[in-house]
Design brief:
The protein is α+β, with helices and mostly antiparallel strands. It has 9 helices and 11 strands. Helices cover 35% and strands 22% of the residues. Strands 1, 2, 3, 4, 5, 6 and 7 form a 7-stranded mixed sheet that branches. The chain has a two-stranded antiparallel sheet with strand order 8-11. Strands 9-10 form a two-stranded antiparallel ribbon. α2 packs antiparallel against α4 and α8 packs antiparallel against α9. The longest helix is centred in the middle third of the chain and has 17 residues, at 125-141.
Length: 276
């Protein structure tokens, strides 16, 4: 059975408890059609303002990991067999002082001292708790910025974000194939899932190069290009990573043959059986 954060914390010492990585990314998506969020310094301030380690250890409590990039660990491996995150930079580690400096620059550039944004989240326990945590962290770290939490069913969140009817949104994505493009392609200017409407010509060019010859036939160079693309995305704070999600669950020791995947369907019971 899947567990809520509080339940996962309660059963962590049980022999039946397992934390199953999903290979998925939870992130904040700023809508760049909102004039204030077009300001890069303001986005950087927001990206630095919350502690991801606290979010996973004290809020989600299910084995999720803090996310410091656009491509999660444990699911994408290069031609050398190394994880995409191996050797990649870690982006937007919490830094209250630096966040404050970016905020002051944004206030000067935008000519205002106070900002208020709606944060759209799903009405699940985990998403609501995470939204409340982010709301409080940003309030305490960035004087003058207020987040108003708006909790809606998942279907409504997806519809509204696809329509651009939001300001900040807590979104998530899990890959259906084992390549960094399964994540990075979401934020190309042509992508349906580029809800925040961030656009960067060089980013698009890097992705197109990674999809085409000759790089398609040169895996080492292609891998470097994909890392360069992530740098473009993250350095402009096009999204703010939060966590690499996991599911906490209880699984009896008598259940054998269950399969857990980070790509595609996470839990497969087709060949599972119960030991007598």
């Amino acid at each position: 059975a899947l567990l809520s954060g509080d339940q996962a914390e309660q059963y962590q010492d049980s022999e039946e408890f397992q934390s199953i990585p999903l290979g998925s990314l939870w992130y904040l998506s700023p809508n760049l059609n909102v004039s204030d969020l077009q300001n890069e310094n303001l986005r950087k301030a927001l990206a630095l303002s919350y502690d991801k380690e606290i979010a996973v250890s004290l809020v989600l409590k299910d084995g999720s990991k803090a996310a410091y990039g656009a491509v999660p660990s444990g699911s994408m491996y290069g031609p050398d067999g190394k994880d995409f995150r191996d050797g990649a930079r870690e982006y937007w580690k919490p830094d209250r002082k630096l966040a404050g400096e970016y905020l002051e620059q944004a206030k000067k550039e935008l000519g205002k001292q106070e900002f208020s944004f709606s944060l759209l989240v799903e009405d699940t326990e985990g998403a609501r708790n995470l939204g409340q945590f982010l709301q409080e962290e940003i309030k305490n770290t960035l004087p003058g910025i207020t987040l108003n939490l708006e909790s809606v069913p998942k279907k409504v969140r997806l519809e509204r974000m696809a329509q651009g009817d939001y300001e900040l949104g807590l979104s998530r994505w899990g890959a259906d194939y084992s390549d960094p493009l399964a994540f990075l392609d979401m934020w190309s200017s042509r992508s349906y899932f580029n809800y925040g409407n961030w656009q960067d010509k060089e980013y698009d060019q890097l992705l197109e190069a990674a999809k085409s010859e000759p790089l398609a036939l040169e895996p080492e160079k292609r891998w470097q290009i994909l890392h360069q693309a992530e740098v473009r995305l993250m350095e402009q704070a096009a999204i703010f990573p939060v966590c690499e999600k996991a599911n906490g669950m209880l699984l009896k020791s008598t259940v054998k043959g269950a399969q857990f995947n980070t790509i595609g369907v996470n839990r497969v019971w087709t060949y599972a059986w119960k030991e007598e």
